[in-house]
Amino acid sequence: MLSGLLKRKTKEPENAPKTLPQHVAIIMDGNGRWARARGLPRTAGHKKGADSLRTILNACRDAGVRNLTIYAFSAENWRRPADEISDLMQLLRHYLQKEVTTLHENGMRLRFIGDSSQLQPDIRKQMHDAIALTATNNAFHFTIALNYGSRQEILRAMRKLAKEVQEGRLTPEAITEERISLALDTAGLPEPDLLIRTGGEQRLSNFLLWQAAYTEFYFTPVLWPDFGTEEFMRALHEFARRNRRFGTTGEE
Ligand code: FPP
Predict the structure, then answer these.
(1) Residue 210 has what DSSP assignment?
(2) How many Å apart are CA 107 and CA 238, to the nearest integer?
């Protein structure tokens, strides 16, 4: 898939700004509306969304962003019609089967966040194999949130810590922000600097609530299947213009 990188379009994408986010998180919204506007089934929107994902993964790598985390399936997405869920799972199977070797060849490490216990065994096996294959890669960290919900993730982490306290391996005083971060699914990843949400909604929808404490948000009405390199560069430039103060006055 990254071979597409070599084929430059007629219009050169805008250069990436100097100040780059280390970690970009994306809520890929608007696949269904994209499909409906064309009289197509929602699945067609998700398929086109998978193409956008390829494009943005390449764009990240080209620009020098080293971590990308995407919200592929939320813990709340089980409420969708059974047909759509099964189509999304099929798309995921297909995506993992087709892309993992290429990700690996490009030095990318693939990880998953969320509760995988409710996913089908063959998908869990694919996930497990992909994690193992790419575990020592370090050029790029690609994280897929699957059956992910931030509150559920925090709850799992709290239970883990409570158990350690109960067993006498941890004292309440030793529970620090760092210790909590390490108990989350995202342990080891930097916090996202920039979170992009496509599709016009302006909310977090239970994505990375703890991790996004100081994240810059970028909302765009562009539907995910229409979100390409140029749109991504626009988001990077907007990020570069923001003055991140982390609670300080911003003065030296
Ligand atoms: C939101 O659009 C999108 C999703 C719930 C699924 C995202 C999945 C992909 C982009 C597929 C590719 C990813 C992988 C890892 C295979 P929506 O359906 O909520 O759109 P709507 O708001 O217009 O209805």
Answers:
(1) T
(2) 28
> How many Cα atoms within 13 Å fall on the side-chain side of residue 59?
24
For each of the domains in the chain, give its residue range(s) and CATH number, in order of start: 23-241 (3.40.1180.10)
What pTM did the predictor assign? Answer: 0.92
Q: What are phi and psi of 162, to 5 degrees?
A: -60, -40
50 ligand 1 Cβ < 6 A: yes
The one-character DSSP state at 51 is: H
Tell me if 81 sits within 8 A of 75, measured CB to CB: no
Ligand 1 geometric centre to CA of 71 (Å)? 8
Q: Are 69 and 26 in contact (CB under 8 A)?
A: yes
Distance 67 CA to ligand 1 centre (A): 20
What beta strand segments (E) does the chain contain?
Answer: 23-27, 67-74, 108-113, 140-148, 194-197, 216-219
Characterize the bridge pairing of strands 194-197 and 216-219.
Answer: parallel
What's the rounded Cα separation, in Å, for the pair 115 and 233?
32
The whole-number mean pLDDT for each consecutive block of 10 residues of the chain, a chain of 252 residues, reads 43 75 98 98 96 97 97 96 94 96 97 97 98 98 98 98 98 98 98 98 98 98 98 97 78 60
Contacts of 36 (CB under 8 A, 6+ apart): 42, 45
Q: Residue 66 forms beta bridges with which residues?
A: none
Q: Does the annotation count 77 as an active-site position?
A: yes
Is any atom of ligand 1 closer than 6 Å to the C-beta of 80?
Answer: no
